[in-house]
Structure formats: structure tokens, C-alpha cells
Design goal:
single chain, 137 residues, mainly beta, extended
Length: 137
């Protein structure tokens, strides 16, 4: 029983670390600078309208977004499915990657559009600079 509890605790910690490493980022920006509210899977991600919104901590590889412009004369985008991650190739099928997806919205009075700019792997943070130790003479 004790071994089972230890195994389950280890499994939960591994799943938690894996899930954290797989979080994606969505960046949506307005082509002409119109401020908007971005909703991801039904939840508003910015309180005040902005012309560029970045959302971290997205765990799904596909989400549904809605864009509501501050100018109510512009047509909103509602429930648009977008891709956040990529399907792994055969070579990297066992590699876990996080992605940054960039999209651009174009506002129109009758119809607004969204365009995928890029989906790229997140860059790992650079290692801090550490000077070489002094050489002994």
C-alpha cells in the first residue's frame, strides 16, 4: 500500500511537470491598431480593450477565440477555432514542445478576418552568464 501511494504521488508530479512544460502562448494583434477584447474558450483574457493581446498558459493545441472590438461599428469575430500547437513529426513524436502562435485580426464594418502569422516553438530562456573561474598560475 505504501509503495502504491508513493508511485501515485510520483506519477502525479511527472504529469504536473509535463503539463507545465506544454503550455502554449497565443498572441493576437490588430492589423490597423483597433483595440479589442479577446476571449479564449469563452473567457475574456484582457479587461481593457488593447490592440495586442498575449495569452500564456494555454494547454490545448486548438482553442476557440472571439474578438470583440471596442468600436461597436466593427464586426466581431465569434467562436473561431484556431490552432495553437503543431502535430509532432515521426522524428519528434516523443518530444514535448511548447509553441507561440501569432495571429492578426483585420476589422471591417461588415466582416472581420483573422490570419495566422506563425506558429513557432517557444525559445528556452537563455542560460545566465557565468564568467570563467580565474586560472591558477
Amino acid at each position: 500500500m505504501k509503495n502504491l501511494i508513493l508511485f501515485l504521488a510520483f506519477a502525479v508530479s511527472v504529469v504536473n511537470v509535463t503539463a507545465q512544460s506544454m503550455s502554449h502562448t497565443i498572441v493576437v494583434e490588430s492589423k490597423n491598431g483597433e483595440p479589442f477584447i479577446l476571449k479564449v474558450d469563452g473567457f475574456a483574457r484582457n479587461r481593457k480593450p488593447a490592440n495586442k493581446v498575449a495569452v500564456d498558459g494555454v494547454y490545448a493545441s486548438q482553442v476557440t477565440i472571439s474578438v470583440v472590438f471596442a468600436d461597436t461599428m466593427l464586426a466581431p469575430l465569434k467562436n473561431i477555432p484556431i490552432l495553437v500547437g503543431r502535430k509532432a513529426s515521426k522524428k519528434e513524436s516523443n518530444v514535448l514542445k511548447s509553441y507561440t502562435a501569432r495571429y492578426q485580426v483585420s476589422a471591417g464594418k461588415k466582416k472581420s478576418k483573422i490570419k495566422k502569422i506563425s506558429i513557432v516553438p517557444k525559445q528556452s530562456p537563455a542560460a545566465p552568464y557565468t564568467p570563467d573561474p580565474p586560472k591558477k598560475k
